[in-house]
Specification:
4 copies of one chain form a homotetramer. Chain A contains 9 helices and no strands. Chain A is mainly α. The first copy, chain A, folds into 2 domains: 50 residues, Orthogonal Bundle (Arc Repressor Mutant, subunit A); 130 residues, Tetracycline Repressor, domain 2 (Orthogonal Bundle), CATH 1.10.357.10. Chain A binds a DNA duplex (21 and 21 nucleotides) through helix 1 and helix 3.
Chain lengths: 202, 202, 202, 202
DNA sequence: TATGAATGAGGATTCATTCAT
DNA sequence: CATGAATGAATCCTCATTCAT
């Protein structure tokens, strides 16, 4: 998924590094101080550049934040894809668990940054981008299961997918943040919920 | 749940009305414009008082926002309690559905305000207060079910309760905001998920 | 003519004084440093108030500048009116000279401020307001002379008025700024030009 | 009139073209957007060069603007000269009209650029250069008429020249911008004013 | 208590200019 | 010569909060 539109297209190597530094810095500042305190000047300072440079690449604060989210969102696509491939052909329960494990692992890895977004960034600043991911996941899930479901149950499947995606997203994130009990037990529970939601197959 | 600590205790009737007006105004402004745009001056203007007066009743912006949340949170206690009483003695499935229906109804009623908080207020501004409610709900749920569960399964029950509370909260809110399909179908689905999480009773 | 729209209506005496101080300060800064250098912070500093206060009364830099011009423009209305009254009934030549003398006197009095506007403020910032004055002056001039002119010459009168107003305005200001020769000689010259422009009376 | 001092003398052909492109671009941007919005970066972009290159030819923004004015000013010298030659030997009235026509034509041709300067550029940025032209015009006018005037009237001639130059400049520009009535009528009026200013010849 | 004028630190953003490549 | 990335001081403006009246 594309990074935010850039004012200056980074043709030179130096540009590319600068963009990286800005996004890195923004992630750090967001995690440390939250959205409100993440002023452009502060992000620039953290990146070791001048405030003006920032505006060579981003049109403003929101675009920088968007780039940080894009990075997280892109991470999911990349890290869940292998699990999806591995799961293909396996029975539904182990397949589901495999994928959920990958999702949870990715969340765990970005834990601090995700925590910062959840706690300190108003959702309207990033909802659109996360929603795009959500839609993609829902589409994939739907088509994975649709084949083995009678056409009459498509509506039920739609509802199950909506519910699953929301449930997995929320519980995964909350579990990673709070870690209220053991990882395996959580994955078992979550797998059971998701599998239980699927309409009876043919 | 207590209102935020006030600088002046509103012993007099007029004071109480002023507090109401401020909280009302804050709810309106938050729903209309979000947290960032909800300046104290704007809230005061909406309430028809001067900015200075505001500080006679609240120590600052965050305390006003807290009072708005408290009102929402208190609403739940009040409106779910009757359903809880009615559910007592009924079989688990209809009982659960009854309570979930009440929860959903309350969310639906506060839809705009909840949407404003979810979308536009950084969670750290209100997380503590919602967490307190969450804990209370978890406690009640735990004790309601604990009696019919073997002591050995207490850990499993803990996990099921954590998962249920998080799931119900999230799905209920998201369903009320998006209304992606029919209400009854949703309640059926959600009831099934929650009941399915309960450890096998004795 | 009205001052620029104010955000805060100066009900209290203190407000009125603050507005005065801001407009005074803006005039000083404009005359000293020009439009570009007349930052809101600098105007505030000159006025001995904080930058925020400024925005309580004016929506921004342009509105402050407009208030300064309004003051100058209003000055003309007030100071030329007596001359107009005195001129009524006199023959055209002494009457014209009387009015031009009053105009020049007023320009001379505001010399520094007018110089600052002419030299250092882009005209688009104040053209509209000066144009309003110009239109009023043209209207008055037209009606003063129209009575003694055959209806057939109205077009010619229109042209003469347009030319007179522009000529008087420009020469008066430039003369006051440069003072290239004696005041009396200038008034004689200018009176001759203006009287010469008038279409032949009945 | 000389171009502004350059950092590098454009001995080479390519350099000369670059300078042209910069001045062209500056004229376009000034006419389109005014002085404030005419940033060096924007001028460079319009010229199709990089901001750095600009500083190879001009010491800064003001020097670029000066070059644009010089071009306008030089245009006058070139386009009024033929009219002056043609007017020589003719009676004063048709001669004056001929020259004024040429002046007006030149203003009309540069209408947009002149409008941009008048409306949107603080006069102090270009006053010196226009003043140089004004002085030259005044000198020429003085010597043209001086021969036929008694020496005793030299002071009067001085005053008439000052007034004429200012009047012609201002009315010509304002007429071209506003076009409030017919061109011929304007030239008649203006010619009459100027001729009327001349001291009685011997 | 209520008022509302005043505060002032801090935020987002721009742009003339420089300099390493 | 040209490039274009980088600079950083300076600008306009906001808003939570205070305090004299």
């Amino acid at each position: 998924m594309a990074m935010a539109t850039r004012r200056r297209t980074p043709t030179q190597e130096r540009s590319r590094r600068t963009v990286e530094r800005i996004v890195d810095a923004a992630a750090v500042v967001l995690a440390d101080a939250g959205y409100d305190a993440a002023s452009t000047n502060r992000i620039a300072a953290q990146a070791g550049i001048s405030p003006g440079t920032l505006y060579g690449y981003f049109s403003g604060k929101d675009e920088i934040v968007a780039a940080v989210i894009d990075r997280v969102v892109d991470g999911f696509a990349e890290s869940v894809a292998p699990a999806l491939r591995e799961a293909a052909g396996q029975p539904i329960e182990p397949a589901t668990r495999l994928v959920l494990d990958a999702v949870l692992a990715e969340v765990e890895q970005r834990r601090d940054l995700i925590a910062a977004f959840i706690d300190r960034v108003p959702a309207e600043r990033y909802a659109a981008r996360v929603d795009a991911l959500r839609t993609r996941v829902a589409d994939v899930t739907f088509h994975l299961v649709a084949a083995s479901i009678p056409a009459a149950d498509r509506d039920e499947l739609d509802r199950a997918v909506w519910t699953s995606v929301r449930t997995v997203e929320h519980l995964t994130v909350r579990f990673a943040l709070a870690q209220p009990f053991e990882r395996d037990a959580f994955l078992d529970l979550l797998t059971g919920m998701v599998v239980g939601l699927a309409p009876p197959s043919r």
